[in-house]
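>> Question from a student workshop board

For tomorrow's exercise we were told to take the sequence and the ligand below, predict the bound structure, and bring the output to class. My setup keeps failing. Could a helper post the expected result so I can at least see what it should look like? The ligand is phosphoenolpyruvate.
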Amino acid sequence: MRKKLVAGNWKMHGSLRQNAALLEQLKFGIAEVQCDVAVCVPYPFLAQVQSVLAGTQLLWGAQSVSEHESGAFTGEVSAAMLREFGCCYALVGHSERRSLFGESDALVAAKFVAAQKAGLVPILCLGESLVEREAGQTKAVVSRQLRAVIDVAGICGLMSAVVAYEPVWAIGTGVTASPAQAQEVHAAIRAQVGGLDGELATGLRILYGGSVKPQNAAELFKQADIDGGLIGGAALVAEDFLAICLAAN
Ligand code: PEP
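>> Workshop helper replied:
Here is what the output should look like for this input. Compare the format with yours to find the bug.
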């Protein structure tokens, strides 16, 4: 039985003042929640999050990570630095990184490996665009993105990783994949992994992301291969985020 995980992606939102209120509300409400819960926050807020959440059942992480260990890479943040701030997770390959910052499959794979090498659990985001879905390429795209990581990290790399299926057309749009649409892709991801290592596939957590709200979370999380969610907009409202976490109970 896979324990569900709900991870919030704050994107580039928040301020020290707003975060303080949000984190206090999360700390207060989390006692009722049985699944694993994490927040992935902008780098400058990691110290605040570490100091407020240390010792609670909430975990935290970053939204990206450098593929390099250290060196002359102005503006970058290494996985070891993230570990120093108590990060458990790092998102890699979020569709906004892929589309707005030109991150290729190969770069995402390098970031995945760098994160793991420093002891972070990468949350590998995969997903097709609307054009790709309409062209019937959903499974091919997701499979290609996943294979790029397996080719570099090896199938064992997925042992301490989380996968998040996030159809690009559902992120921040209010349009969510139907539970059946999401389940179909999740099952395909698990089957692809299962073709290489059955036991690993059975234990692999595959999150769904894309306009998850308190109203649709329970139906999504009921699907056989959906092991929780990666939550954007709704992660900024404590009441909504906690309701989504409770839906995963
Ligand atoms: C995301 O940012 O990964 C995401 C899924 O956003 P939203 O929940 O707002 O669609």
